[in-house]
Structure formats: C-alpha cells, structure tokens
Design goal:
single chain, about 475 residues, alpha/beta, five-stranded antiparallel sheet, 19 helices
C-alpha cells in the first residue's frame, strides 16, 4: 500500500479529501492529516509518506516550504498541490519545485481519482524499476559473462547486438558491463578472446587462422596484431611454448587440460542457457515495451492536462481579460505573465494571446500569426474555441523564434472568455518538438521499431521523420496508419 499524507487548513476540504475517495482501490491509504505545514512536517519526519497532497496557502508554514523540506528528506515522495485561481505565482513556484501535479479549486471527486491513478502509475513504474535494478545488481554479472563467452567466436558481435539479445538499451548495457565486469565492452571482449586464444594455442594443434576464426577474427593478420598488443608476442611465438609443455610434469598438463574442459563447459552452458531463455527474454522485452508505451502515453496526457490547467489560470487572470476587452490596455503585464509561465516549464518555447479583434501579444516579437479584425472568421481560431475539454496538439511546424535558427514546435490552444462565457480571445502555447521526442527516447522498440504521436484529428504530431510534414509522398505512405 502507498502511504498518503493530506495537508489542508480548511477542515471541510480536509475531511472531504479523507472520506469521499476510496483510496484502497488505488492501493493507497491515508496515514496522516495536518492543518498546516509545520504540523505536517513534524508528522512526516516521524512517518514519511509516498504521496503528499497539500494546500499551498496555509498559516505557520505554506505548502511550498513544506514541499522543499520533504523533497530534501525524501526525494522520491510525490507531491500534489491544491491551489485556487488567485495563487498563480504560487502555482508557478510549485511547478519549479518539481510537483507531480496540482488541482485547481474547486475540484471534483473525479479530478482527485484521475490524479491518483496517474501518480499510482508513476509509483508502480518506479517500484518495478527498483526491482529490476536490484535483480541486475545481484544476478546479472554471471549472466553477462555467459552471454559474451557463448559468442566469442561470433565476428559480428557488437554491443548493440548483445543489447538487443538481452532486451536492454545499448547505453544501459554499456554502463552495466563496466560496473559488473570492470571493463568497457570492447576491452572485456578482446581480453576474453585473447584468453581463449592463448589456451587454444597451448593445448591444441589448430592452425593460427583456425584459432583466429574460433575467437571471432575473420582476418588472421589483424588477429596476430591484436594478440601481440595484448600478450606481448605473436601467436606463432606463443605457440612455440607448446613444445616445451612436453617437458612439464604430467600434473601440470592435467591441470591445464582440466582448465580447458571447464572453459568449454562454461561456454556450452552459457549457449544452452540463452537458447532456452530466448523466448522468455523476448516475452519480457515485449511486456516491458508495452508497459513503457502505456506509461509514456499516460505521462504525455498528464502533461497536456497540466498545461491545460496552467493556461486556464492564465486565461482567467484579470490583466489578460482586461487587455482582451480594452484596446487601450497595456500589454506589458500580459507579456510578463506569459514569460513567467514559460520560465516554469523548460518544454515550453513561446506563448501567444490573440484577441477576438485580432490584436496579438507574444513572448517573442518574431512570432507572427494570421489575424483579422474579426477572428471568428479564422478556421484555426474557431477550432481553438471548440476544444475546451482537452487541448489538441497541432501537427509540427517550423517557427522562426530566433534570428539564428528556426525551431520545430507543436501547439495547444485555450479559449479566453469573460464572466458570462463570451469569447474574448485565444491563448496558444508552443511546445518544443524535441521535448516530445525526449519523452519517447527510452522506449525499447527493437532495431526496426519507431514511435509516433497522432492527435484526435488523425494528424501526425510527432514522427521521427520530419519529412512527413512537407512531403506528399511520405504522407501518402503513412495514410494506412492515420486511417
């Protein structure tokens, strides 16, 4: 069970959070409650929690100071803030502190349960990762040695190929080999191949080119060169020592032959092990990939909802509404708010406000958009107004954001309305295209696999080939996926 602490100075809200939600269905239990940050911190030190659900604006110690202390003691603790629309500056700082999410008051039971489900997904993933790392730490050293020894004769063996066989990413396997075997992959591979070559030179009548082939070298001259670099003499010079073996005592010869037998047996066991376990490894890899895809999807959806909440806060700011209603209003306050919002999220590259009468305020003066005196005639503006429940990502495009270079971005939009619900304008956030790619980089999809994102309109939002956005031929080839 995951432990939750609830911190809220309003008693009715605190009781509601405690009693209205069935936490057990998420594998969670409320272990503590507190009415201010100071009381919560004292209880947290005695009994840490996996999840901290806390208000921001509280007496004695606010939620931000509490979160800072909690993160110092328990970096793995997941923090969800509760905030009102008038706490925009607090919400900005909360995001910067590394909050998992925040709920805007007033919130519903469904909002809380949706948030808990996402946090549970993160906790489950972290727990599974910790279990895997523990297994790797205690059990993979011998398995790695067996996997490499079983393929010493394979001249095509590479780190990438071995990683694919074992179900790891090449970068992770590289770190694992260095940690467990004490050498980088290539150094360890050469070391073991030379050990086997020395043994074969001393205990068999094989030709040098035959030994080279058995230790993964197609070119005998290159094998001789590497052998001399490692051992200090050429294979031919080393082989002459075999003649002196006849003068060695019988016991020494028996020991050497026994060592050869053990080495060959070790290689045979390793080969059989990976033949019998390949199906299990493949199933584990497929299951891990599916879980990673689900997790990435949940993360991106959660991130979009957080952006939706952020733009909602911005769209309800008095300065934004006043500028949208009054043509003579100063735009500097609006620009400051939008720049502050951009600073809280490194994935955001720009923000734009377009009023109903076609006035434009942007965080970057180089941004331009198609505007008119009546924006209701613009199709993109009408679509932005329709999508109120969840922002829709646009297909990627180039945006001239600096004088030095163009950047690829995708956008989400949010309508700005007055107190009666009448349209005043639209806020647009531009997200860095590379940020979406970063969320998918950890997926292990094999040699031929790739990932992509499409929106509700069946348009490509992210694709590893940017040509799909400009090439009709590429787009035509992708039509079966979109349909």
């Amino acid at each position: 069970m995951y432990a939750i602490m609830i911190v809220e100075d309003e008693e009715l809200i605190r009781q509601g959070l405690t009693s209205l939600v069935d936490y057990e269905q998420f594998g969670m239990t409320v272990i503590n409650q507190a009415k201010n940050g100071r009381e919560a911190w004292e209880k947290f030190q005695e009994q840490p929690a996996d999840i901290l659900l806390t208000d921001i604006n509280m007496p004695q110690m606010n939620g931000l100071d509490l979160a800072h202390l909690v993160k110092e003691q328990s970096p793995s603790c997941h923090i969800i803030f509760l905030t009102g629309y008038d706490d925009f500056e607090f919400a900005r700082k909360a995001i910067k502190l590394g909050a998992d999410d925040y709920l805007l008051k007033p919130f519903s039971k469904d909002d809380i349960e949706e948030m808990l489900a996402k946090v549970k997904g993160k906790l489950d993933q972290e727990r599974k990762k910790a279990q895997v790392e523990d297994l790797v730490s205690h059990g993979y050293s011998t398995d790695l040695e067996e996997a490499i020894h079983a393929r010493l004769a394979d001249s095509q063996l590479t780190l990438k190929d071995l990683a694919y066989q074992l179900g790891f990413s090449p970068s992770y396997l590289s770190v694992l080999i260095k940690k467990k075997l004490g050498l980088p992959f290539q150094d360890y591979l050469i070391q073991e191949r030379m050990k086997k070559a020395q043994l074969l030179l001393l205990t068999t009548d094989l030709k040098i080119y035959e030994i080279a082939d058995q230790v993964g070298f197609e070119d005998m001259n290159y094998f001789s060169q590497r052998f001399k670099q490692v051992v200090g003499v050429t294979p031919r010079q080393y082989k002459k020592r075999r003649a002196r073996m006849k003068r060695y005592p019988l016991l020494i010869q028996l020991v050497l032959y026994f060592f050869l037998f053990i080495l060959l047996l070790f290689g045979l066991i390793g080969s059989l092990y990976y033949q019998t376990s390949s199906g299990t490894i493949r199933q584990l890899t497929e299951r891990t990939t599916r879980n990673s895809i689900d997790q990435s999807s949940q993360f991106i959806t959660s991130y979009l909802k957080k952006l939706k909440q952020t733009t909602t806060v911005l769209s309800k700011e008095q300065a934004v509404r006043q500028f949208a209603q009054d043509k003579s209003a100063n735009q500097e306050t609006v620009q400051h708010l939008m720049r502050t919002m951009i600073e809280t999220d490194p994935d955001l590259v720009s923000a734009v406000l377009v009023t109903k009468d076609g006035r434009l305020v942007a965080t970057d003066s180089k941004i331009s958009m198609q505007t008119s005196s009546d924006m209701m005639n613009e199709s993109w503006y009408q679509e932005a107004i329709k999508e109120r429940a969840m922002p829709v990502l646009t297909p990627a495009r180039k945006e001239s954001l600096t004088s030095e270079k163009e950047k690829w971005v995708v956008s989400i939009t949010q309508e700005v309305v007055d107190q009666t619900g009448q349209n005043l304008g639209v806020v647009r956030l531009d997200i860095g295209y590379d940020s979406l790619q970063a969320y998918l980089d950890h997926l292990q999809l094999g040699k031929q696999g790739f990932s992509f994102i499409i929106n509700q309109k069946h348009e490509f939002v992210y694709h590893p080939k940017k040509a799909v956005y400009s090439s009709s031929q590429e787009m035509q080839a992708m039509q079966p996926i979109l349909l």
